[in-house]
Q: What sequence folds into this?
């Protein structure tokens, strides 16, 4: 055990104690996970154009797929045959009928994204490193926007509310790659 001894004049003791208490854990909190769905502009027409770009503001467009579910029903073909004592002579016969129903129709979504001029080899390499550090990208860092990088982006953004292989501006901010807007501060 290492012991430190220090003497402080009595008037400075409350100041030193306050400074030491400020170093205790619990004061700082981890940032809340980003909600990427908050910045989505949803449109019924998946081919609709995004909002008009102003200089320095770029948009990406993606189509969220329709969601279907398969419903299975058991339909009675023939009833069970029993004797007078209730013993089953012939069990009931059923058939399975299945059909699909649409739970959610596809829709177009527009979202802010880094502009093409910002998607440099260095930016994509930083993006790959950030995704790799979080376990989404498993290949070597190349700086090329390839299929593995796009899929890693999708896996990162989907739980945050944007199921897209295109990096959103808010997704890039959540990864620490893009500074926050001054209006957000």
A:
């Amino acid at each position: 055990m290492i012991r430190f001894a220090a003497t402080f004049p009595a008037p400075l003791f409350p100041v030193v104690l306050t400074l030491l208490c400020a170093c205790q854990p619990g004061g700082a909190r981890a940032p809340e996970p980003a909600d990427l769905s908050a910045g989505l502009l949803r449109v019924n027409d998946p081919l609709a154009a995004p909002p008009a770009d102003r200089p320095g503001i770029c948009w990406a467009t993606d189509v969220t797929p329709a969601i279907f579910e398969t419903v299975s029903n058991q339909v009675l073909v023939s009833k069970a045959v029993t004797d007078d004592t209730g013993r089953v002579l012939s069990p009931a016969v059923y058939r399975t009928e299945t059909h699909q129903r649409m739970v959610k129709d596809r829709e177009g979504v527009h979202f802010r994204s880094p502009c093409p001029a910002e998607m440099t080899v260095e930016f994509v390499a930083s993006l790959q490193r950030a995704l790799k550090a979080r376990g989404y990208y498993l290949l070597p860092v190349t700086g090329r926007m390839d299929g593995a990088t796009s899929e890693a982006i999708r896996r990162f953004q989907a739980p945050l509310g944007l199921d897209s292989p295109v990096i959103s501006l808010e997704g890039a901010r959540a990864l620490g790659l893009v500074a926050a807007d001054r209006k957000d501060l």
Observations:
- The beta strands are 41-43, 58-64, 67-78, 81-82, 88-90, 93-104, 107-113.
